[in-house]
Design a protein that fits this description.
Chain lengths: 308, 426
């Protein structure tokens, strides 16, 4: 290699990297799970950030002044939808027209997902997750990641058609890793199919559907309203009757009531991670499901062997 | 059943212990006119607990309790000083500022923490149901200690509260004893709020003491009455919460409020004698009648002005006595109305069945495919829309009837009420 060529090579590389760094597509997502999936599809072409921190209840998030700035730089917005991240509507009102509903930089990840617990198209106060539009925790079914990444891919192609093939290939590579994993996870929990469990809020129906778990009830059926003594007493009776040995909670949910129920009904409180990053060390989507499935399998195994 | 009884018994015992100490402290608080002091102290201690939490100590650890206590004592110093500052502004204003600032500061800190929102909610409503037997024992011991301390120095504490000028004249160090009062008060409130929440602790503090003070000037008698009222209100609140499937803390607060209202109503009947009582009863009767007339007048006028709006009085009458409908619906209307009700309940049953089917399929039998799930969802949605349609029909029929009623019921109601009102006011 002549010195001139060598120099040219380095120059070329530098230009390439410089260009790549500067025209990375900025993507804003509402949750860390969507951010992780955007990164899977966009890889080094995108720079994604999530607005709501994964350690808190996303539905109760209050936007910060910085979020406006983040949206100003963004080319693509990806949200959960179904009233889960309603707070972003206020931010989008002042954002670029492309980022608003119907714009080419707007992705509602719930489009196309087979939704559970749809109660009505208009507002209706129903128990359970009080969203008539359907339960919003659909990312907890790993099979839904296929639809979600599909929506993300289409969004990325809309704003960056030149790299369409890259996004398609990235997504296919991700799905190729995901699908055998789903089989593996299902096998892991197969023998506990139909096992009765209790959850704190009604946040796990998609997870339960994929892994064939029987959620018999939740501790707080109406989010935000503390359970009544008759509900708790009924719950304990039901748990004893059906031998429900596991209470699934999320890290940000109150610990007292699950502890009390666990003592009275002889069950185990299992804190599962609802989102990427809600427990330290869970850095991407596959790790999230892996963590929840493994923890649950261990808990079931412990209960089966009668360990405390 | 036994589980429920166990919950309720422990919660009731906790309520008794809380009533015991808070009714006494409430007398001080009411006499000193510092009603919101418990909120301020509770919030400062919560702020301390939050600081401990952010520094890496677990909630409910000794360190967390130490921080909470230290902050509470600092708050007690501030409050005992506030008596001297409150020349141009009232002490209540200082207390309010302490409350909002410590609440906002805790909010800023906790913003970064998981369980932050849950923590703040917990502080507000508490969870008296999840108190364990050990908690109860610990709480009782602590409060007994503080009660003993107050009993020992009761003369000084009472003098300071009821007549601070004389206390000063007698050479009592007002600042020091104020501090001791607020410090012991802070310890109590910190522990109470941790289990029962701000709303309920406020009720325990103010309402039994207030009921006692309505009936008596004597401290001992005030206490007995307050304790009895607190115990009764707690029992009523807990039973209502169990019987009607309601959140316990909020139900108890409402029970306390009702007890106070009842005590206020009954007082004149018990306390007055002979002629005076009769005069009062007559006055009350006339007041009630006037009230009814005004309600009737307003309802009638509202029906005449806007027959399609909400009419609570008519709705209540209709709910209590569905046969009323027969008087103002024609036979054809009645038929449509009844079929709408039937279809509505049928559709609702059908959509509940679909939901149950989906729910069961998550773990039983062969699982539904994604398309099956979508199909089920769209059935449910259509059923819900049908249900809304049937409800719309019912509302329309009723609104049409109300438009006719505006002349038949509305105007006469106005005239009759007005006549009665003029008669009672004369």
């Amino acid at each position: 290699m002549t010195p001139a060529r060598y120099l040219a090579l380095w120059l070329g590389l530098a230009l390439c990297c410089g260009a790549a760094a500067s025209d990375k597509i900025k993507v804003v997502t509402t949750t860390s799970d969507l951010r992780s999936l955007v990164e899977e599809v966009g890889k080094e072409r995108v720079e994604a950030i999530n607005l709501a921190p994964p350690t808190q209840d996303v539905e109760a998030y209050e936007p910060r002044p910085h979020d406006v700035q983040k949206l100003r730089d963004a080319k693509l917005v990806v949200r959960i939808g179904l009233d889960y991240d309603l707070w972003i509507n206020k931010l989008l009102r002042d954002a670029h027209v492309d980022l608003r509903r119907g714009g080419k930089g707007y992705v509602d990840a719930s489009i196309g997902v087979p939704l559970l617990e749809i109660r009505s198209t208009s507002f209706d106060a129903t128990p359970g997750h009080s969203h008539g539009a359907g339960n919003p925790h659909y990312w907890l079914d790993p099979a839904n990641a296929e639809v979600i990444t599909g929506g993300i891919m289409e969004g990325l192609i809309r704003i960056d058609p030149a790299h369409g093939t890259t996004y398609k290939n990235n997504r296919n590579a991700f799905l190729a890793r995901l699908k055998p994993k789903i089989e593996e996870w299902r096998r892991k929990l197969e023998r506990y199919a139909g096992a009765p469990i209790v959850t704190y809020h009604n946040s796990w129906p998609y997870f339960a559907r994929r892994f064939r778990l029987n959620i018999i009830d939740s501790i707080e059926p109406k989010p935000g309203i503390p359970p009544s003594p008759s509900h708790l007493a009924g719950l304990i009776r039901k748990m004893k009757e059906k031998r429900a040995a596991i209470i699934v909670v999320q890290p940000f949910e109150s610990g007292q009531t699950p502890k009390l129920l666990a003592e009275r009904a002889g069950a185990l409180v299992v804190p599962l991670a609802p989102s990427v990053g809600s427990v330290p060390g869970i850095d991407d989507y596959l790790a999230l499901i892996e963590y929840d499935v493994s923890l649950l399998a261990i808990a079931f195994e412990d209960r089966r062997r009668g360990k405390p | 059943m036994s589980d429920a009884i166990q919950f309720l018994i422990i919660a009731f015992l906790v309520a008794i212990v809380l009533t015991g100490i808070h009714a006494y402290l409430g007398i001080h608080v009411l006499s000193r006119n510092v009603v919101f002091v418990d909120l301020a102290l509770a919030q400062i201690s919560a702020f301390g607990a939050t600081v401990a939490f952010m520094l890496g100590h677990l909630p409910q650890s000794t360190a967390a309790y130490g921080y909470a206590l230290a902050f509470t004592l600092a708050g007690a110093v501030l409050l005992s000083l506030s008596r001297h500052w409150s020349g141009r502004i009232t002490q209540e204003a200082v207390i309010g500022v302490i409350y909002v600032v410590s609440a906002a500061a805790a909010f800023l800190l906790i913003d970064k923490a998981p369980q932050g929102a849950e923590h703040i909610k917990q502080l507000l409503v508490g969870s008296i149901l999840t108190v364990t037997r050990d908690d109860l024992v610990r709480l009782t011991a602590l409060y007994a200690l503080i009660a003993a301390f107050h009993w020992l120095f009761r003369k000084r504490f009472l003098l300071l509260t009821l007549d601070p000028a004389r206390a000063k004249a007698q050479g009592l160090s007002v600042g020091w004893w104020d501090f001791l009062f607020y410090a012991s008060f802070g310890v109590v409130v910190t522990s109470s709020v941790a289990i029962a929440g701000v709303l309920l602790v406020f009720s325990f503090l103010i309402i039994p003491a207030a009921i006692g003070m309505i009936y008596s000037d004597n401290i001992a008698r005030t206490l007995y009455i307050g304790w009895t009222a607190g115990a009764l209100a707690s029992a009523a609140g807990l039973s209502a919460s169990y019987g009607w499937d309601l959140p316990t803390g909020a139900t108890m607060v409402c029970a306390f409020g009702l007890t106070l209202a009842l005590a206020g109503l009954v007082r004149p009947v018990i306390m007055l004698r002979g002629n005076e009582r009769q005069r009062l009863l007559r006055k009350a009767l006339r007041g009630t009648l006037t009230g009814f007339c005004i309600v009737g007048l307003l309802s009638g006028a509202w029906l005449t002005i806007n027959p399609r709006a909400d009419h609570p009085l008519l709705d209540a009458a209709e709910a209590a006595q569905p046969e009323i409908r027969n008087y103002f619906l024609s036979a054809a209307e009645r038929e449509v109305y009844e079929s709408a009700v039937t279809v509505e309940s049928k559709v609702q049953g059908e959509s509940a069945r679909m939901n149950e089917l989906e729910r069961a399929s998550r773990w039983q039998g062969s699982d539904l495919s994604d398309d099956d799930v979508r199909r089920l969802s769209s059935y449910v949605q259509s059923f819900q829309e049908m249900r809304k349609g049937e409800q719309f029909v019912q509302r329309e029929i009723r609104n049409k009837a109300r438009e006719r009623q505006r002349w038949v019921i509305g105007v006469p109601l106005v005239l009759v009420s007005l006549g009665l009102l003029l008669f009672t006011l004369k």
